[in-house]
Design brief:
This protein has 2 helices and 6 strands.
Length: about 100
């Protein structure tokens, strides 16, 4: 395989992952893990981030809120910086920013 073909294949593979419309954004709000919508911080959808990025969010934000374990837990606000795509409806119709990756500060 020649170099140009290889570079073209890699470029095509990366196009869907990070686009020019992706922006750096601060997500600030409660870290939640809901069965129907998944993992979020405020209106930032964290369902497609890497395990390493999710671990970093857990280190910064603590244990996510879950209705199964709500008990007497006090809501905690946290803030993370991410690279996110443009706001769009998730599978349940809520407008969210799909997070591509978490920026570690």
């Amino acid at each position: 395989m020649n170099r140009e073909v290889f570079l073209a294949a890699v470029s095509i593979a990366l196009i869907g992952h990070v686009s020019a419309a992706d922006k750096r954004k601060t997500c600030s709000g409660e870290f939640t893990d809901m069965p129907t919508i998944g993992v979020t911080v405020s209106d930032c959808d964290l369902n497609d981030i890497s395990n390493a990025d999710l671990q970093y969010v857990r280190q910064r934000c603590g244990k996510p809120f879950s209705p199964k374990e709500s008990g007497n837990r006090t809501p905690k606000t946290c803030a993370i910086t991410v690279i996110a795509g443009p706001r769009r409806p998730n599978r349940h119709g809520a407008l969210v920013f799909p997070v591509r990756r978490v920026v570690r500060e």
